Structure prediction request, 661 residues.
Amino acid sequence: MSPNQAPSAVSAAPVSGAAGAPEPLPAVRLRELRKTFGTVTAVDGIDLDIAQGEFFAMLGPSGSGKTTVLRMIAGFELPTSGTVELAGSDVSRLAPFQRDVNTVFQDYALFPHMSVQANVEYGLRVKRVPKAQRAERAREALRTVRLEDFAQRRPAQLSGGQRQRVALARALVNRPKVLLLDEPLGALDLKLRQAMQVELKQIQREVGITFVFVTHDQDEALTMSDRIAVFDQGRIEQVGTPVEVYERPASAFVAGFVGTSNLLGGRGAEAVLGRSGVYSIRPEKIRVDTDLAAPAGTDEVSATGTVTDVVYAGATVRYEVALDVGGQLAAVRQNEGSPAFELAGSRVRLVWRSEHSFRVPDASDHR
Amino acid sequence: MTTTASAPRHGVSSFFHRNPRLRLTALLSAPMLWLGLAYLGALAALFVTAFWHTDTFTGQVVRDWTLDNFRTLVTDEVYRTITLRTLGIAALVTVIDAVIAFPMAFAMAKFCSPRTQRILVIAVMTPLWASYLVKAYSWRIMLSGDGVISWLGTPFGVDSPGYGVFATVLTLSYLWLPYMILPIYAGLERLPESLVDASGDLGARPWRTFRSVILPLTFPAIVAGSIFTFSLSLGDYIAVRIVGGTSQMLGNVVYDNIGAANNLPFAATVATVPVVIMLVYLAAVRRTGALNNL
Prediction:
């Protein structure tokens, strides 16, 4: 895929408020980046600019190449071809210790034989920062992640969330140009993950460092990032703000991966929308109406069908509806207290504003 | 519920299922009995025998308690020399093996494909399947005056070291090398790749990463390997007889006292020396966590 599908990929959009005036040089610039392992192509020609101070998410299913891209930025993998630039200088062939980036690993990779303090100081000690200054900066970093009382503990004596924060402090203390986070919240349970999402975002605003983080969790990407790159099969499908990616997915893959896949195509699209092609409609934009005869608004479209399934999810209820004209759509409704299951098997009318059916490039005009 | 229903038919299985403690006892009683009698019993017998002595005229073992054997062992210059030599050889063999084994294990664990790793592990173990005697004798042949080593060395002005302490160290290092490689390899395999990545990521050059992360975390594995190489060298007497020339080790003294000298109590006394040294060594390395790496 070429970046022309997602015009924002090339312009280093100054999105973050933390950066202030837009920097002329992107913090990270990838050009024609490729990586093959034997016969497998993990990363297949990626162009990407990440602005200074941006909170940037690389989102995709496992095996989509997002982690490999991160590892190439860090220097753990050398690209097969293409370049990695950090703040304008080409680092493509440099070893990790020669690059001004730091990484928070998925398994945190804390040194088990060192105290929290020694872990955090490690990068400074390696760079021969004087002892007093080292201790002061480590204390400050631990304060940022609210762990100043745990300096003398061993990693094994900490909980998952605390280890995660130590890993963050150990990286931040070096004041890198770019902080790379590899599925940083993947190992935490839901409640802790949500808390850490907020906290991570807050820390990023405080320190103003560019954060590049890899995740397969679309909610995480949407909640935290300034911009998101959606990866599939070693390529970037779309780059954009969470709103752009969610509301105007550039491909059927993005529509399906970010949010629930809810596509209307073929005869169904022609019958309902009067146009050919494949359209994505977000389930929460669709209203479920039991009054089959009620007139639709001027800028609304509607389709009748039968509720085939009702999925109760606590805060919301999802209705799977088989349309009379063919095709299947899901509609999500807030659980407002009306009995959820009474609609199962009954005839309903789905109504949504026509602007919410968003055309996605399908196989016929894609690649 | 099913347990109760099927109880009549599977009486023993369900009984043990309900009584895990008894199941453990049933499983362990035979091996524990074996270890207790055959192993600890023999060790105790050895220790007791060490305090007896033999009648000089009849050659019979006299079951009187005496410290004479230990007195001889400590005061006689010969035994002190042999003990120190044995210790020196065992220590040297351990160091040589560790130095050779670490790069090998490191390459196996970190740079080889899984397939190559399997092949190399088998290659490392292959010598263990060959007879000990054959290996020792092949070293004797290689070290002989017109053997491979002198033949290869002649153009460079190097001669075979001949039979002696050096040859013993060489042969023992060769014999016990697999026992050092395998624990270190296992230790390095357990070392998460991300720790090495993290160290480099934080600015450490490879040598620094080795010193600060890899070595401290695999040290217990090295010590685990050293327990094998050290104790095996300490008790060896066959390789020494074959390539050691005139320089004996403690094992030879034990062997000669059982055979030629027919002085079983003194043999037992000498045999306690490596046991005590090993106990001291194990106590010393316990703190490193090496015993969890065996």
